[in-house]
Fold CRAL/TRIO N-terminal domain-containing protein.
Amino acid sequence: MDEVKPDICCQNTRFDATKPDLPTIEDIQKDNGETEETRICGLETLRQKLKELEDIEACLDEEFLLRFLRVESFDSLRAFQRLKNFYDMQEEMLEMFKHCSIDASVVQSMPYFWALPYRPKNNSALLVVTMEILPDAYKRNSCR
């Protein structure tokens, strides 16, 4: 008889954080076009463009901005557009929560997850998930 193996998403897996070695980091930076020059230039460009925006009080922290530069391979214009999209989405979600008032007892009585009755402009749904131990039957069904 064949042994039934559980789906990997249902297993309790722990990944310990490790710090990659210097050659690995250098290879990643090279593949991504990250040099001291691209970092400095990209950060200056992003900070300048963000300061020009009147309706956004942007975070100018180096590590925060580097995330956007790295995901766009140090293309400052694309990183800036991604940042603007981030702040637009943040504003949209904050606006949606301002008009959402649900009694805490109602939320606590809902099983596992539910969707807010309101939709943002792009008509997506905002799901709220309660963090608790799910029954085994639910785990098996959600992994397929």
